[in-house]
Give the backbone structure.
Amino acid sequence: MLANIDALLLARAQFGFTVAFHIVFPVFSIGLASYLMVLEGLWLATGRQVFIDLFRYWIKIFAIGFAMGVVSGLVMSYQFGTNWSVYADKTGPVLGPLMAYEVLSAFFLEAGFLGVMLFGMTKVGPRLHFLATLMVAIGTFFSAFWILSVNSWMQTPQGYATNPAGQFVPVDWWAIVFNPSFPYRLVHMVLAAYLTTALVVGAVGAWHLLRERTNEGARMMFSMAMWMLAVVAPLQILAGDAHGLNTLEHQPTKVMAMEGHFESHPDGAPLILFGLPDQEAGMVRYAVEVPKLSSLILKHGLNEPLKGLDSVPRENWPPVPVVFWSFRVMVSLGMLMLLLGGFSLLARYKGRLYEWAALHRFALAMGPAGFVAVVAGWITTEVGRQPFTVYGLLRTAESASPLQAPAVAASLTAFVLIYFAVFGMGILYILHLMAKSPHRGEHGIEPGAPIRTAGITPAPSVDPDRHLQPAE
Amino acid sequence: MLANIDLTVVWALIIAFAVFAYIVMDGFDLGIGILFPAFPPGIERDTAMNSIAPVWDGNETWLVLGGGGLFAVFPLAYAVIMPALYAPIIAMLLGLIFRGVAFEFRWRDPRHRALWDVAFTGGSVVAALAQGITLGALLQGIKVEGRAYAGGWWDWLTPFSLLVGLGIVVGYALLGATWLVMRTEGSLQDRARTFSLWLGAATVAVIAAVSAATPFLEGKYWERWFTMPSVLLTAQVPLLVAVASFLYFRLLRNGAERTPFLLALGLFLLSFVGLGISIFPDVVPGRITIWEAAAPHASQVFLLVGASVLIPVILAYTAYSYWVFRGKVDAAGYH
């Protein structure tokens, strides 16, 4: 029995590790693809050199980030079967087709348009090239659409029946795909992708502004990123609030854990700012709280009742401290993003956007904040779903493969070692590219380079007169 | 109209097609990875790499489609097979990751090229070996109770599965070598031709050994191969293997350039057909049939709508880009 628990914990650790590594790459790709689309669109509309320079600067980084997203995603597509076979058997009829649609559409996109986007500018001309960029941007969104639909169904399942073998079977595909939490999650996640990318672009701009204030490319990318942040950070807070209310409606236990509400509050629940949740004792120690504020936020009334975890059987509690803290990390970073956006507006108003070193240092420090917030938000929603894989219907302990602990321990070790080595190299390479300052007449991706991302390099992008260079 | 066709069989064929498409397309570039250390660093290695550079990546997506498709339309098979073959599957994934990035980092990081060359070969060998072991372990039968795998985590490791693993490594190397005979010239082509001869002999030997062992693994295999009247049909497979092998060696010695690669693919196709004869209509050989493992009709139809549009588009596109990259390649690239 103990061995089974260990194997389960190890399998969860492995899934958490591989997906946390994976999630940062697609988030960056979604945001960056849209940014590249905007840059190219602005270049086509205005003809200004700086836009195409920035496009070429960022596309090199995009290629590597996308490549790492693809290879780390390969692992995810098999892991449902290797480590979560009971889950796979039971949910396959409902979730399998959604994921297969993601594979088919992602493959189609990858083979069809990435190569043109990466290599094809001189061959197909700017307008067709812009179309390819547009398609890639839409494609990344499409990929997010399917996988978030899958994830949302696990949180708020509907449109299914159960067959005698214990499998979930589809009854209404529309209801399955557009399940109740899906629209909120999709908006929240796509905005998170934009914010994350804006923070990275802003940090790179800030880094170069700190060294060379007059660099036109650095100024432009910093300004664009700060606009994005100033607009999207408040929107994201609104979207997050709406998502939270949706969660309260469909997964109240998760909200109880996020809020640290062990006890029910029949006449107005306090907002616990900080404290140490104690799962065993069922209380938050050293709580710093604002009376009635939680009821105001969640129920829009000071004295509205809010139920606590004491209304839920203990075996259905998620691990409260993890959810409590990851939620606070996400929200705090969101507030800092709002602050940075506000700061940039102030600097802009004072005409010191490119000169105010404190702003640049702040932006630089916030560079990785989006990734941290995304992972924290993901932990909040996924750990908050525990102890179920399909909320309320299939327990995590009953989802795992019949594997022995040493097997999972060995694979987890291998994943950790290889991911850090391989993706560490890739991230170093991206940082290396970011450290170079943007300049006029920026080169695109070197011709002839074997780019992992390019899929099957499509014919129109290949210049018949250009020889593929040896791997020099 | 759909009601009259057994969609389960349609889907079994689609998944089989995806798996074979993967073997055809990723086989030769894994093979080049396996043979890589046999080529001297410099022009020959770079040329070998260049010959697969434009086409190699999209190939692996067929593997994702095979796995994803299995999850979608044969979830029970996916749920039984994956844990049973846990170690080889994980090893294959890690091998493919390593190999994939090595391909790119080798080019980006010339100072550590020797290291990335080792990673490229290591990843390719591990991926090929793991795929073969997976196949062998599946063929020799896995223990199932209820709807789950019931064996231990080393069950996959037997002399038979190792033999099949070795066979896949040798076979992929053969595909890689004959691909180079087709796509290159000069000293690299000569070297590849010599390899093709030895690897051809080794591949035929492994095919014979695996074929001889397989009918004894499982009573049903024996029945499917050797009962009248189906034996009249199944006997054609080994006959065709003999014909293809004969032609292969003859043409290779006569200096043919394209046909050896096509005949090597033919050997793979015949082995694949033989595999189909052994296991059809099971999806977990001897344990679970495709109908037992199939997802409900609604799932099959929903996915078939998308697959029947997207798979042909992907295929057409793939064919087109192979066509563009036809012809000889050298260190300076494609002509």
